[in-house]
Write a sequence for this structure.
C-alpha cells in the first residue's frame, strides 16, 4: 500500500493556514492587530526565504492558544474554517486525493503548522492521518509551548519516521507533494517527489532533477 504524503499550506489549499489563522484573530479583534500582523508578516517572509527559526515562530504562533479555553478556540476554529479555509480549497487537489484513495494508497498530511489549526482541515479534505507540530497541552489547556519535535524541514523526516514505526507502511513507492523548498529533505527521500505550484527555488531543483511539476491552482 504506497504512501501518498501531502504538504498542506499552498499545496492542498491556496494559502497558508497558520498565517490566515493569525489574520482571522486580528480581524475579530481577538489579539493586538498591529503587533501581531507585523510579527506574522516577518515570520512568513522568513519562511519563504528558508531562514525561519521554527521554535521562535511557534512560541509566537501558539501564544494565542494558551490565552483562551479550548472550547472557545474550537468555536472560533469552526468559523475560521468557513470564512478562511473552505474558500481556498482546490478542486484539483481534491481530485489528486481521490485518485490516490481509489488506488488504495495510504494518505498522510505532513505540515509544519500546528495540529490545532490543521487537523480539522485535513479531515475536511478527507485525510484522517496528519503529522503537524504538536502544541503542548496540560490539564486540558494549551501552554503555548511545542510538544516534541516541530514537523519542519528535517523535522518532517524525524516525525515521519516516528509515524512509520507505528504504522504498517514504508516509503517504498511513496509520493510527496509540496510547494516549498523547505520540504527538500523529505522530497529527496520519497520514490516520487512532486512539486506543486512550487516556489522559485523548488521549481529550479525539480527541473534540474527531473521531478514532476504540477499545478493545483
Amino acid at each position: 500500500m504506497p504512501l501518498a504524503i501531502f504538504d498542506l499550506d499552498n499545496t492542498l489549499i491556496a494559502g497558508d493556514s497558520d498565517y490566515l489563522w493569525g489574520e482571522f484573530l486580528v480581524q475579530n479583534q481577538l489579539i493586538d492587530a498591529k503587533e501581531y500582523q507585523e510579527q506574522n508578516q516577518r515570520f512568513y517572509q522568513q519562511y519563504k526565504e528558508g531562514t525561519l527559526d521554527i521554535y521562535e515562530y511557534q512560541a509566537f504562533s501558539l501564544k494565542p492558544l494558551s490565552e483562551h479555553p479550548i472550547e472557545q478556540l474550537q468555536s472560533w476554529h469552526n468559523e475560521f474554517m468557513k470564512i478562511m479555509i473552505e474558500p481556498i480549497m482546490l478542486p484539483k487537489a481534491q481530485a489528486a486525493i481521490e485518485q490516490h484513495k481509489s488506488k488504495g494508497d495510504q494518505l498522510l498530511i505532513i505540515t509544519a503548522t500546528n495540529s490545532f489549526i490543521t487537523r480539522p482541515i485535513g479531515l475536511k479534505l478527507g485525510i484522517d492521518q496528519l503529522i503537524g507540530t504538536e502544541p503542548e497541552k496540560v490539564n486540558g489547556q494549551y501552554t503555548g509551548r511545542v510538544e516534541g519535535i516541530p514537523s519542519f524541514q528535517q523535522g518532517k523526516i524525524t516525525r515521519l519516521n516516528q509515524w512509520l514505526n507505528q504504522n504498517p507502511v514504508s516509503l517504498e513507492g511513496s509520493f510527496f507533494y509540496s510547494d516549498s523548498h523547505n520540504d527538500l529533505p523529505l522530497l529527496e527521500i520519497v520514490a516520487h517527489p512532486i512539486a506543486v505550484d512550487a516556489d522559485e527555488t523548488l521549481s529550479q531543483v525539480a527541473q534540474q532533477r527531473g521531478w514532476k511539476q504540477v499545478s493545483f491552482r
About this structure: The domain at 3-214 is CATH 3.40.50.1000 (Rossmann fold).
